[in-house]
Amino acid sequence: MLDFDIDKMLFTIPPESHDCREVRRILEEHPEVEFVSFVGIDMGGHDTDEKIPVRAFLEDMEKLLEHGVQTDGSSVALPMIADLGNAKVDIIPDKTVNWYVDYNYRNVCAKYGLPVGTLRIPSFLVHNETFECGSRSILRNALRYMKEELRRELREHPYVFRYIEGADSVDDIDDFVVTSATELEFWVRTPDDKGDREQLFIAQTLKEQYWKRTYGEVRTALEETLLILDKYGFGVEMGHKEVGGVKARMNNGGHYNHVMEQLEIDWKYTDAIQAADNENQVKYVVRDIFTRHGLDVTFMAKPFEGVAGSGEHTHIGLAARRKDGKLISLFAPRNMKEDFMSPVGFGALMGILKNYEVINPFISSSNDSLNRLKPGYEAPVCIVTSLGKAVDKPSRNRTVLVGLIRDVHNPMATRFELRAPNPKSNTYLVLATSYMAVMDGVKAVLEAERTPKELEASLSKKYGEEDFYLEKDREYRSEEDVFEYYTEEEREKLFGRAPATVWENLEAFDRYPEKIEVFNRGNVLPNILFESYREQTLSQWKLELHDRLIPNTMGFIRSCRKRHTDEDFSDYDIKNWLEIDKIRHEIAKDTITDKSLLTQAKEALDARQYDRASALQLEIKRRVEELTALYTRYKKNLL
């Protein structure tokens, strides 16, 4: 339980309180906040944490808030920008968003009876004093570009206001409001406990865990987390069990062990940059509170094979604030009972779908993330959307990449749910690339001056049909379960083949240069930043495959030992073991004449033969899955 008074703690300093006098007053009233940290986000999505004692911060606050602090750029992920020979990077505070206090719940100050806090200030990374190079800057610039372009397009094509409720012209609009939100799924478990893959699969299939009541330490940690998140003003909507997990056991001390559960926490939407900042802070609170109760937390996309992974569905919306202050949805149609969306909404969705091949590398940038995107685990593999069977029958299709969320009685709820991101996705870049694609589609639709009915027909086009914007040999909409209704061959033909490795995903950058150009507009993602991101992702893939996945696979191979004895075996056991041993040697054992798959993969990476390394990675994965099934069958037959 929380053994301190959270009502006495400082959680948020809002933008309107960021002048130096007010910041000083607030910090002096909350002496439990003993440090200040400037938080920049690099191209790998990692954040900086440079703790400055509050005393030193207050002594030089004006200068620090204006010019930030310096860091060694070679220690952050900014390849091709900041290296050992040119490493000067400044971390410049962002005064336009909420600043959050991050509390150390394991370090309670005896004097005040409260945890020691660090004021975390979201910041921009600037190389050599002029070049902004972090993920937050890219998102900010993407939003700035989109708002400018959207206003220009609406002015040049006023026909669209016939289909938008609440505004008759662009002159009625004071500003555009880009709304976003994420949902956080994660696994918790007691340390050192390993999940039984078969039991996890059975529990998932029987839906024994979904939305069930939590128990013991998990319940306490979840409740404390929700209470604390609400203090930050995130507008927590719910926390609940997800589909994965098995029932825990109680030990003699009255505590639960063998905990293995998947949870989800949802909170309200906000401005896109603030939404990404909020998500960072939510993860810190989740990890801190659950570990305080002796529970490990993982935000991996696919921590356990054979069961559902963890997604982070990202919601994308767009509104306009009229000059009288009222908000109106630009995605919703004038008549919710006649059309699914306005032309702006259709254009936004079409832009994401058309350009998704080059958005995907920013969303699924790790081996783990691609392991999650498989048929049968409530994760998307096809570039396809669902609108609903009819305007009055909202979509409930969980097999698509992007779903339209709408409420006939609440136009402001109209938005898109992008289902591919995971908790390790860099949300700043997910949103930046998505909104750039949104603007590409909106621009094409408005310049063609298409009506909602015409755009619904475009989005519903069949394979081989020409369209003014979407590609001829593709389909983009399905109201069916795409895993059940289509064969794998049909899915790949209609919706495109999903990349299976990080390298395959990165290859889209070379296959679709015309789509990459969408990100270059407005200098939002100039070539140097684009190449920096590609180099960071490629380097991460190589290192992880070479120095983590291959050694881990070798460890698994060595664990698959002969278990039967000379006194206790059958011919069936011998047959199974011979098959197992053959695969073990093919994967991991070198001979004078032949090299194992693991060795071949390492040598391909060392030689920068990435096509070959990628193909070998898939072959190793296939053979390991085959070995796992055989070894499980073998063990089950032993007495």
UniProtKB/TrEMBL annotation:
Q: Which family does the record assign? A: Belongs to the glutamine synthetase family.
Q: Name one GO molecular function term.
A: glutamine synthetase activity
Q: What is this protein called?
A: glutamine synthetase
InterPro entries membership: Gln_synth/guanido_kin_cat_dom (IPR014746), Gln_synth_cat_dom (IPR008146)
Superkingdom, natural source = Bacteria
* Species whose genome carries this gene: Hornefia butyriciproducens
- Any idea of its EC number? 6.3.1.2
GO CC annotations on file: cytoplasm; membrane
Q: Which GO terms describe its biological process?
A: glutamine biosynthetic process; nitrogen utilization
